[in-house]
Amino acid sequence: MWKNACVIGGARSGKSAFAENLITATGRRRIYIATAEAWDDEMRDRIARHRQDRGDGWETVDAPLDLSGALAAIPADAAVLVDCATLWLSNHMLAGHDLAAETGQLLASLAACAAPVVVVSNEVGWGIVPDNALARRFRDAQGRLNQQMAARADLVVGVMAGLPFALKGRLPGAPA
After folding, report:
1. Active-site residue (options: 50, 139, 144, 168)
2. CA atoms within 13 A on the CB side of 15
3. What single string gives the DSSP state of each residue in 130-153?
4. What is the pLDDT of residue 176?
């Protein structure tokens, strides 16, 4: 059984659905930590669809910036899904926060969390080099964050076209 897992993939790859299944399979109380902020109608609709797709049985905690605080409050009998590290990082970047300090705090909070945690994150490094400094800075920071989370995770799963592949550890249910 994994304690900390990362599910990484591109946009609309199926990573959130796979991560939700990992959490559901634990049989524990399910807590969803949401990092998105609804700045416009389209994002509000997106968040509402995401909640509806998850269905009943999930407790939602909104933590667009204080992910460490949200993780510290998770009880040991739960399983938690953080969706997603990419929005959390962009929230901090746009707020002008110290990304290295925030990342260090997040990594410590993930390690200290009493419950199993799955973090969803986007792989943003497979495209072209962005044409502006902010986008390049974000891509680089996201790549570093993904590497640091993956190095500390027991299970790292890539998802592409809805299909999971193990990058580290063994997929639950896969033959030994």
Report:
1. 50
2. 27
3. PSSHHHHHHHHHHHHHHHHHHHH-
4. 66
